[in-house]
Amino acid sequence: MPTIGIKRDLLFKRLGKTYTDDEFQNLCFEFGLELDEVTTEKQMITKEQGEDSSLTSTASEDIIYRIDIPANRYDLLCLEGLVQGLNVFMGKAPAPNFRAIKPIEGATERLIIKADTTRIRPYAVAAILRNVSFDKARYESFIDLQDKLHMNIARKRSLVAIGTHDYDTVRGPFCYDAKPPKDIRFVPLNQEKEYNAEELMDLYSTHVQLKQYLPIIRDSPVYPVITDSNGVVLSLPPVINGNHSKITLDTKNVFIECTATDLAKAKIVIDTLVCLFSEYGTEKYTAEYVEVLYPDGTTTLCPEVEYRTEIVSVKKINKKIGISESPENIVKLLSKMCLKSELTNNPDNIKVTIPPTRHDVIHACDIYEDVAIAYGYNNIKRTLPKTMTIGQQFSINKLTDLLRYPIAEAGFTEALTFTLCSRDDVSTKLGLESIDKVPAVHISNPKTLEFQVCRTTLLPGILKTIAANKKMPLPLKIFEIADVVIKDPEAEVGARNERRICAVNCNKTAGFEVVHGLLDKIMLLLEVPWSRKKDSVGYFLRATNDPSYFPGRCADIICNGTPIGKIGVLHPNVSTKFELTNPCSALEINIQSFV
Q1: Mean pLDDT across the chain, nearest whole number?
Q2: Which domains does the chain show, CATH number per domain?
Q3: CA angle 581, 582, 587 (to 5 degrees)
Q4: Are strands 99-101 and 286-288 parallel, antiparallel or unpaired?
Q5: 254 exposed, middle or buried (CB, 10 Å; 0-12, 13-18, 19+)?
Q6: Is the pLDDT of residue 582 over 70?
């Protein structure tokens, strides 16, 4: 949940009323927000950097309200959006009507996307804000909103990178291309010397803020770059803008471009920016189109600033929230949340118009939530549910808890390991040829090599735990009862969880009899008899071969005619790959069938 810092006096001036801290906290609660902290800029710097920070001497003593904003309410991430939302909520102003228009005179500006951009950041959108009046507070809010969007929906610029430029200092049409880093030369923002893009990687490698964005493009053979018709570099997304087109308090016309790996999020970002700051233009709540030309020859106009409609049921709204409001009252409640609504010919239906600032409304239930907020959560009467139910523990969790203690009493120590692991942990380290033969669920964008797939067995996690505790006296007897994730095309989500018990005995000798004894104890607790006849009643061991286990010392565990796991002595190669120097015996069974 992002937190924004708003200067109290400036906020009250825009709201046209002064509140006490408690009164404003109540207003925030009614609007679905939370006043997190009342502080000052000086106190914030002291808390973050300490009393000796050089910034504390220049920090102001202005009261700052730190307000928690829902993660999907991008329209409330700055003073302008918050004031607009609160004024509409309190009935002080109508919801604005946002529009994207073509220039009155001259042709529509163009942004030409080259084919090479598909190698790094394939999408771009743009817009122009005309005749904007900036002052210090508005300028700071404009920059702060970009930072909040970068950290929130843009996922630290990996999905979307925003560039804002003084339109009067450049000349269109603009070109979005991808070039080798040595071919990109310009003076970066707030610098005086010209660098090529390769040199910029070194220049900003120690920069407190920018160094985190360098890995997004650093290893690519080409870097994205936006230039004007004269070859002036506007930006090197997602790292830095050019100094030539930087915005100042004197800027009147703003050219906004967003490059992205996710086009939908880029459209949300540019809609949010132009809608919230178009109120400072001479023609309020309007933004100018930019024509975006794609490599395949297709064109589109940005920003879309699109209104859409949704039909909702009055009965469903009342039932879901637990109220009994008339359609007319629900229309008024929705209007307080910037959702223009009107009655239809069907008395049960309401037509709701969703503005381009409310990208968080993606389903009818989001509209129900806004009705509940406008009605007031505290005003909803508490009632007992019509059907009384008693909560109880899941059967598999109850069985898990019942088994934990006896296994611990048998001398095994419980471990809790990561559900994610590397591809090698569940494949080559266990003696398998490749990950392709493992039914593992892969993480699409893993952050580290240690967390690439969901574990398909508990064994690697326990072996890593033993390796990390090699200094402890032998024997090391570790167990875990937890879920593994198995890819399953027949499951609703393409995968299923499976609860398993895994135990490993590490000693100077493998000690197969230790894990065999534990298996017998578990089966005794589960009231499963040993099957002397090796038939479909009871459990028994059946010799098998598994690359993870020593040849001739591995067996399938058959329970009531179905294999439920394996037991045996681990292969020396497996022990070596997990950095273990002592032999190990292991047991792993699926307990899902015992529920």
Answers
A1: 91
A2: 3-74 (3.30.56.10), 99-302 (3.50.40.10), 308-379 (3.30.56.10), 395-594 (3.30.930.10)
A3: 125
A4: parallel
A5: buried
A6: yes
CB-CB contact of 5 with 62 (8 Å): no
Predicted confidence (pLDDT) per residue in 524-575, tens digit:
999 999 998 888 899 999 999 999 999 999 999 999 999 999 999 999 999 9
**Residue 356 and residue 338: Cα distance in Å, rounded?**
11
CA angle 402, 406, 411 (to 5 degrees): 145
Judged by DSSP in three states, 437 sits in: helix
As a whole number of angstroms, the distance between CA 585 and CA 510 comes to 5
Q: 464-485, pLDDT tens digit by residue? A: 999 999 889 999 999 999 999 9
Using alpha carbons only, give the angle 141, 142, 144 rounded to the nearest 5 degrees: 60
C-alpha–C-alpha distance, residues 143 and 140, integer Å: 5
Spatial strand order of the sheet with 290-293 comes to 240-241, 233-236, 223-227, 174-179, 109-113, 290-293, 299-302
- pLDDT at site 51: 54
Is the link from the previous residue into 173 a cis peptide, with omega within 30 of 0? Answer: yes
Strand partners, 563: 558
Rounded distance, CA 351 to CA 312, Å?
Answer: 7
**Sequence-ordered alpha helix ranges (H) in 417-511:** 459-467
Q: How far apart are CA 507 and CA 25, in angstroms?
A: 62
Identify which of 268, 305, 272, 267 has the alpha carbon closest to the alpha carbon of residue 288: 305
Tokens describing residue 436:
């392709």
Helices 136-151, 263-277: inter-axial angle, 10-degree rounding = 160
Look at residue 431 and give its three-state secondary structure: coil
